[in-house]
Task: inverse folding
């Protein structure tokens, strides 16, 4: 397989309600990514597009509908969709387009416009549950997260005020992100604990916001990347993995689907001791406890002990293992597919030393980004290095 | 047996629905296109000088080069009949009392799909068609601000 580099990235602001259509959001991100590496559509061999359920944007075949904004016109074009995992899966798809030798330069775009769903995108999630055993109860995603969070907290004796530290750190980090929706440099644990209870133990500030936005990156084969930039960021490992389709049968305390995806990516990247060999982690953090869950699945903390990274300062931007220096989904926002690709873009900027105010000190060499989704059973992982 | 008749041998079923209500924004280009239609009674296109394409309805960007389109043009209300069909049944399969004509009217390198008011026998592909708009005070910034297209004689 050929080596593949990320050579450009662009993103729109993440907002609660964008004026732009899905096509226009995609276009803005795609154009910025192309301009960042001084390429035009003539240089692009293929386009990979990621967007989560059609229901959000309110257009069936949304991938095809928004394809013009992503540069899909008369190109080999493919949309991938693995729910919340899409934003990390679509660069994997782009990666194998290039690694296989099929294409030299691929544009990868992820877009989500959740505000179209009226009155609230949460209602779209009702439709992902089993129509006979669950939907008559009127469930939504908060139920699942609350049930899982309670199980996780109870198993390890974790406290709400500790888990709130995750939301605080990520939202504070996001204050330095120009595209962030919920950055807040002054937020405190008390703010999180005093926010509205949605589904105990999940409170308003434990959750990432519904958002609109798009992100794009440009991938290139080694011989092209070296010609176009002296700072390529290599995709060193990729992994994805699926757990059972019955969320009732899944281990709610430990995300196997992340572990196996991570092991696949680490093996490809030649990583044997992830905690020592990874310098930045962007775990998927739609909820604060979920970042902890995923750090354990990523083998960056022992089971039940990821919280210690936050309590002892390891997770901070200048800590030993900065976690979500972007601000994550909790701070930057969560336009589903775009949120995952935002993490890839963040690693790209961080590893090139171009993250500005958000820059992690010490010339980090390697990072991992992860997302989670489908019916809460898929893990997608990408390791990047320079 | 038609699809609408009940099969007495069908298994027990559970009825559910997928709730889906949406509120769409017009978007960058749509805001301008529909405002011009509503306020000025104009159909606007946007031109890409690099690719020499005129998009109608106007778009914010060129799908070929992803360049931003800033050259917006009044396309007039007369386009060219690209193709048409005559509808004899509605979506439920019931016969229509009066057959309805739907056509694609070309403007620039794009076009607008809309209802046509004409004797179907008189329609010839390639003939000029003119948009008939609602009176200004009834327009809402919708594609239905165009009531229909009709054959146009200069």
Result:
């Amino acid at each position: 397989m050929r080596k593949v580099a990320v050579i450009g990235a662009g993103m729109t602001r993440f907002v609660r309600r964008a004026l732009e259509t899905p096509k226009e959001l995609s276009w803005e991100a795609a154009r910025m990514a192309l301009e960042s590496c001084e390429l035009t559509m003539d240089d692009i061999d293929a386009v990979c597009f990621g967007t989560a359920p059609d229901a959000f944007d309110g257009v069936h075949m949304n991938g095809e509908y928004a394809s013009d904004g992503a540069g899909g016109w008369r190109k080999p074009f493919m949309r991938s969709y693995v729910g919340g995992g899409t934003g990390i899966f679509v660069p994997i798809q782009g990666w194998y387009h290039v690694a296989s030798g099929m294409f030299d330069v691929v544009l990868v775009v992820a877009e989500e416009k959740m505000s179209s769903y009226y009155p609230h995108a949460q209602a779209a999630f009702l439709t992902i549950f089993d129509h006979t055993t669950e939907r008559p109860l009127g469930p939504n995603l908060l139920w699942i997260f609350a049930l899982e969070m309670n199980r996780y907290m109870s198993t390890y004796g974790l406290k709400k005020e500790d888990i709130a530290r995750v939301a605080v750190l990520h939202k504070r980090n996001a204050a330095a992100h120009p595209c962030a929706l919920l950055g807040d440099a002054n937020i405190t644990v008390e703010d999180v604990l005093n926010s509205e209870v949605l589904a105990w133990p999940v409170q308003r500030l434990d959750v990432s916001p519904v958002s609109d936005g798009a992100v794009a990156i440009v991938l290139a084969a080694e011989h092209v990347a070296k010609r176009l930039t002296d700072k390529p960021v290599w995709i060193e490992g990729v992994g994805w993995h699926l757990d059972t389709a019955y969320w009732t049968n899944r281990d709610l305390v430990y995300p196997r689907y992340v572990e196996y995806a991570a092991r696949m990516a680490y093996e490809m990247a030649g990583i044997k001791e992830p905690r020592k060999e990874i310098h930045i982690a962007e775990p998927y953090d739609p909820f604060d406890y979920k970042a902890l869950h995923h750090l354990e699945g990523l083998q960056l903390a022992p089971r039940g002990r990821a919280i210690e990274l936050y309590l002892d300062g390891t997770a901070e931007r200048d800590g030993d293992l900065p976690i979500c220096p972007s601000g994550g989904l909790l701070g930057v926002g969560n336009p589903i597919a775009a949120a995952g690709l935002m993490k890839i873009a963040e690693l790209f900027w961080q590893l090139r030393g171009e993250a500005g105010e958000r820059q992690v000190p010490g010339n980090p060499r390697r990072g991992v980004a992860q997302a989670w989704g489908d019916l809460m059973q898929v893990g997608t992982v990408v390791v990047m290095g320079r | 047996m038609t699809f609408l008749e009940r099969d007495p041998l069908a298994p027990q079923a559970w009825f559910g629905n997928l709730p889906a209500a949406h509120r769409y924004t017009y978007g960058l280009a749509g805001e301008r296109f529909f405002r011009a239609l509503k306020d000025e009674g104009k159909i606007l296109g946007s031109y890409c000088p690099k690719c020499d394409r005129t998009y109608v309805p106007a778009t914010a960007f060129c799908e070929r080069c992803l360049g931003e389109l800033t050259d917006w043009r009044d396309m007039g209300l007369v386009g060219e009949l690209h193709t048409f069909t005559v509808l004899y049944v509605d979506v439920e399969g019931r016969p229509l009392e009066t057959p309805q004509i739907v056509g694609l009217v070309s403007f620039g390198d794009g076009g607008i799909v809309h209802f046509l008011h004409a004797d179907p026998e008189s329609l010839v592909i390639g003939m000029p068609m003119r948009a008939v708009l609602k009176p200004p005070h009834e327009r809402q910034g919708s594609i239905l601000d165009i009531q229909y297209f009709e054959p146009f004689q200069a």
In short: Chain B has one domain: 27-151. The radius of gyration of chain B is 20 Å.
